[in-house]
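pasting input
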Amino acid sequence: MDSALIPKGVKRCPTWQFALWIGAAGAVLLWGVFAMLLCWFKGLNQTNMNDSYGFALWIWADLAVIALGGGAFFTGFLRYIVGKDELKNIINYAVLIGFICYSSALLILAIDIGQPLRGWFIFWHANVHSMLTEVAFCLTCYFGVLTIEYVPLILENRQIDKVPFFHRLGHNMHEIMAVFAATGAFLSFFHQGSLGGVSGVLFGRPFGYREGIFIWPWTFFLFTWSAAACGPCFTILITKITEKITGKKLVKQNVIELLAKISGWMIGTYIIAKIIDTWYWAKVTAPEAGFNLMDFYSNNPFYGIWILVLEIVICGVVPAIILISEKGRKNPAALMTALILAVIGPCVNRWVMVLQVMAMPVLTFDNWVMYYPSWQEVATTILPVAYGVILISLSYRYLPIFPQEQELNPEA
Amino acid sequence: MKEEQNHEKAKRFGMVIDLDKCTGCGACMVACMSENNVPFKEDESKKLDSITWLRVYKLTNGKPFPDAEICYLPRPCQHCGGKGDHGHSPCVSVCPATATDYSNDTGIVSQIYTRCFGCRYCMAACPYHARYFNWWDPVWPDGMEKYLSPNVSVRMRGIVEKCSFCFHRYQIAMEKAHYEGRGELEENEYQTACTQACPANAITFGDLNNPGHAVHELKKDKNAFRLLERLQTNTKVYYISSREWVRRAGDNYLEKEKK
């Protein structure tokens, strides 16, 4: 029925099967939209947030998807600025995943604020001292860049490409893509960093607070670094999942291995920096505020030292070792393990830098406060996943996302 | 502009609370809520989303009978001056929309309700839990809206609010002084509602910079301390207690420092 829209030389599932798939994802999406409307019309009393948890699941989700969406800017940087030409075979998908991550982040932010209609105040009454202001400006600009990077891909659709204007527009946009890739890398450095600065500057919250250079706490640099390191792993992981679902090889192994190798070295160097940061925080920064390291990880039912071990050793050191070694990259099981761990790593990091900061008492006569999200929070957090599935499915079906697909699947 | 308006020496309004006098009666909390039109819920049993600009904490020394001791600690907004007292208090510096501001004229941290868009970053920044979010629109029992203070605007759902040191009282007092051709206020012309409501006279309020005000001397008491001084929040609320365990409860200490 829709064969005229499907790229030439590739095979896609029957329309009914595709419609069923989209319908299932659409049902989840509608559930999320319903929860979103509840939050907008009835207010944030629909959540389980409270005065101890001003930041909770949504801010974590925001920070996590932005970190994982970092694959877009870093792969773009490697492809267009460093000149790793092989990566042209995965850059489209990295851009699409980044686009989904960033649009999701903006949507979640729009739900998360108490007065959504005043959201524009962050630009109009901007406080230059606030890390959130920097986040808002850079994030919005970078989303614009991602849109510009995604548009030429849409223009490559068989039917759209037939229109001479769109054909030329797409071609010309491709020609100047390096400029946008450089702009994206520049903007990403600042918004990934300022997201790290969000908790790093909280000098009233010793768990999150870090010293740094000028106005930037160390978390500023660590967040950028970890996003650049782990973002490509998320791109590869989603590629692998797509290959599994479609039953096709979509990207050549040498491309995957190249990106995985660079990611491995990035994770390795990041984790060394993270260990140094943790050591300095435990030995100098926290004691100056009157806290021992174990004060942060005891006397509560959830946050034990295990979470630090999980973040740094299991989801940091282990994937770095696997991805740096050629043997590890070539072993499918080891590669998949490393990718999953490398994706969990920044998620755990963002979790503690948001949720544990809120959970921990600072006043000596205060207590740890635990939190679990309401169904409305869960539904609105799953909403972007369903939206991502739908956008990926539509893009995969109708756009030439994977340049190597035809070559790798000649039977089609 | 700010400098031009500052005819007199900058003030630093603050409080000294004598914890040896506080009985924990809660009159300060009631006065605060009434004065500032603080909304309440039908069911106030869940305290984590209740709004209490001034909250009285109950502290214990953790010892069993007969050595057990209790202390009540009223905690308004601490009106932090931040490191070096430059006005970079934890909340002011993080607000992305400049909806909370530090006055260099009075040392008071303000909250602009109509500008706050409810991101709650300031709440995350405040180690004293002095900031509260309006999870609901205010609902007053029938007829009670007639008893609301006309000097303080009620707040809508979705924004943050906190103790203002009854700033509207300062504005009213300054208007009166201006009308009378005075640039300065007498100490008793500007007092917060909680200070006046305290039956034990535990709360003293005034200009910490003014040697003529009681707080100027009280803050120098050998038993005076501030909450979380190590964080360099530089608060304007001082506490006095003759009991060492109470003073120690004001801050965090490492194991070796406890001995």
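fyi Confidence is low (pLDDT under 50) at residues 1-7 of chain B.
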